[in-house]
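Tokens for chain A. Residues wanted.
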């Protein structure tokens, strides 16, 4: 989308980091180098897109699959 291309251009041309608040996981996974995931205001994961994508709590909260999660 135009928004993601604009953010990429800001980052590549000027080296500026951009904070993105987005609920579309396809956009987040395709755009961001580091991700922080909140569920109802509670931090449930942070890391690279690959790390976050594999996190059972993120899968349950955002990617639509129920996963049994051991208590923290």
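Reply:
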């Amino acid at each position: 989308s135009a928004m993601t291309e604009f953010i990429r251009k800001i980052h590549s041309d000027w080296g500026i980091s951009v904070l993105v608040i987005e609920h579309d996981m396809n956009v987040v996974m395709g755009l961001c180098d580091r991700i922080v995931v909140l569920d109802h205001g509670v931090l449930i994961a942070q890391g690279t897109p690959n790390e976050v994508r594999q996190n059972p709590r993120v899968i349950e909260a955002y990617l639509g699959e129920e996963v049994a999660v051991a208590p923290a």
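The chain is about 45% helix and 15% strand. The two ends are 37 Å apart (CA to CA).
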